[in-house]
Amino acid sequence: MRLQRVLLKQQRQRVSVKRPRVESAPRWRSEQSVSSVRGFIGCVRAVWGVYRVYMLVSVCGRDGVVNMVPVCGAAVFRRCVLKNVRVVSCRTYSQEASLYIHWPYCLKRCSYCNFNKYIPRSVNHTLMTESLQKETQTLLHVSQVSRITSVFFGGGTPSLAHPSTIAAVLDTVSKHAQLSADAEVTLEVNPTPAGKSKLRDFVAAGVNRFSIGMQSLNDASLRVLGRDHSSQEALHTLSEAMTLCPGRVSVDLMFGLPDQSVDSWRCELEKVLSVCDDHVSLYQLTLERGTHLFKQVQLGEVNVPGDDVTAVMYQSARSILEKEGFLQYEVSNFAKNNAVSTHNTGYWKALQYIGVGPGAHGRFVPHALGGVLREARTQTLEPDVWIREVQQHGHATRRRIQLSHLELLEEVLVMGLRMNEGISHQHWAEFSPEASFHQVLGSSEDFQDLQKRGLLILDDRGLRCSWSGLALLDSILPVLLLRLEKFFQKPSDSAETTDQADVGLKKT
After folding, report:
1. Predicted TM-score (pTM) of this structure
2. Which CATH class is domain 1-420?
């Protein structure tokens, strides 16, 4: 699991409602799929004041916000002003984007997983490669970006792809946009012997950062989770990855696992830190309806720790990581030696990104179509249908939603406060030149109460959570979102279109 599953793994966002608690461990999933923040925001509007809202992001959950460009003329007035949508000032990186590539296939489905993945009898690698290349080329043209800042191969299990597929996609990117030699190119790896054996070839293909889905070093936990690797295989894969990409290897760990105690979690984390590289991502296990593990828990066959216990697990992990020199730069991510994920930071900073592959999500302005508003885009989910549409039309964009000014600000706020540095005044002004943080939030009694309790900080640097506030972000956001909406006093207004192909793009 990773962030784009915040963003698919880009891909969903789950919202559940629980009665207020003093504290809870974060259930954010980042690295893929930052999918849509809008469901969370809608739930906040509906229930805040009675219930506490938790946002669960699964990484295809991956969502960010893309910037707008200044335009003028009657056409823009009809398109934007009459639809009550504001055009945001152009940013210096308006021609830049990151790129997410989704490989949807796995060898098996883990017991806890409900991401967009498929277990096929066979994979036509040649056709899949051609389709990924074609959709990449088309969407680069639609966005008109001139530079790709980072590339992330997620899934699914992208380490099942042929290294030649990775090389072909990166070659396509280089032909149609600038991809610097030092651009971050990340590949998620399932730490099996088969995955380990291909790491060197992936590096030769252009990968320079690995994200290892270790999840646990307890073999009993791995079996309950349905993982197809052992703890020793994970350690061997990690060692090989660190040899090939020293300082650029991340490890995914899960806590709140069945029968896991606080002490066993601490021991497991300390063992990982004794052998890992400079980046660690922590995710709390979430029970998703329809999964095998969810059914086991419902039937009483498996027990998972309660919220109070997982909150202690999270806080203890933060303390251990800090002691070992890791900086928590985001709710679930920790790094030392400045080994932060450039790609995922782009999501949190609301930079535009392009999503390619079955079920991938994107956030960008479709300049080639005459677009001036940022769009939230979703590609067709099912791989065979996705391939057919890409072969026919050059891409398989299934849904396009224009984001209003308020929706942009909501996403900037929700994603930006995940970072320990928060949102600077300059960054906020790029999206909201007409209203500063002080103007929007300063007179709110609820906001002032959060400041007095030491959970939020608003100073000359900008707006951010304190160390304790970051752990309670899910209960802080509703206050800020409702204040934001009240200030602008305009309902979110978005236009959605569902189409098989964009007009004029049926041939590439």
Report:
1. 0.83
2. alpha beta
